What we know:
5-stranded mixed sheet; 10 helices
Amino acid sequence: MTERDRVQADEAKGPPEEDPRIAGEKHPVARMIGIGVVASLIGVAITLQIDWFPEPASTAAGKIDTLYDVLLICSVPVFVLVMTIAIYSVVRFRAKPGDMGDGPPIHGNTRLEIIWVTIPFIMVTALAIYGWITLDDIEAKQQNEMVVAVTGQQFTWTFDYPSERLKGAKELYLPVDRPVEFRIHTKDVLHSFWVPQFRLKSDAVPGLTTKIRVTPDREGQFEVVCAELCGLGHSAMRQFVHVVPAGDFQKWVSGQKQAAGGSATGGGGGGGGAAAPSGEELFTSNGCSGCHTLAAAGATAKVGPDLGKLGKVDAAFIRKSIVDPNADVTKGYEPNIMPQDFGTKLSKEERDALVKYLLESQQ
Ligand code: CUA
């Protein structure tokens, strides 16, 4: 007897006899739904109790947190329902020891299939529309926006303020309650610009400028985190954003400009940011501090050797190590970790300034 004959014979017999285990159960489906509803309520209550995100600090945070709660309320019952049916069926309808027979043949259930396709379809469509409305709302252009250009590189962030004519800031300062448009670039690989308190995250993609808007609405100091694995120094690629009153922001901007002006050689009044950066600025803005320790610059990273304790070295050695880092790899460290394009990325003057600074910073 072939499988086909057997199925035909079964069909000829009419509907298969009821499974005695299901027959013994008064309302197995009602019971499963009952357990599922109770488990869903408990699951939703638990997930809503958890603080998924840190204290909010931007106007978008409330909307994103609500969206997240709605997603939890929709997805937890689906997960719990599927798991309840699966676990209940495995426990309740498992084969008796020694029972090697096949289960009764099932020919599908059209009504059930329509239900389990339609309900998720409606849920997913509704959530997509809600998510789109929220995103559109958050990304809407604001009045009085300030543009901040964010540049990621292994392993540091730098910030330019075109409207303030300020370039290469190592820390991010923002006036409270003023909308900001971030324009995010990278000099090398993928990074991701993330401020958890702002609920803001955007990838920095080579060759692209990604944009993201945010309005910080709480003063304080929050971490700027790189959220994309970008190399050995990835976990150290953290800086701070300071959200301050507008007056303090202007004071900080003038302070930064003065510092930049002070290090310029014979800089005339208001040279428009043309001042040559100092050795220390080059050290931080080019990401050296993301990997190396250097007491003079307050850098403490340990991916590469301590540059304040190079021993007896001369300018030529330091220059070669910057331009061709694989030429002489310190014992205990790996080759090919340090970017090898500083020979082209830095101008000759910048290289000279950096070499001089490193020589002077030996302990
Ligand atoms: Cu940059 Cu991770």
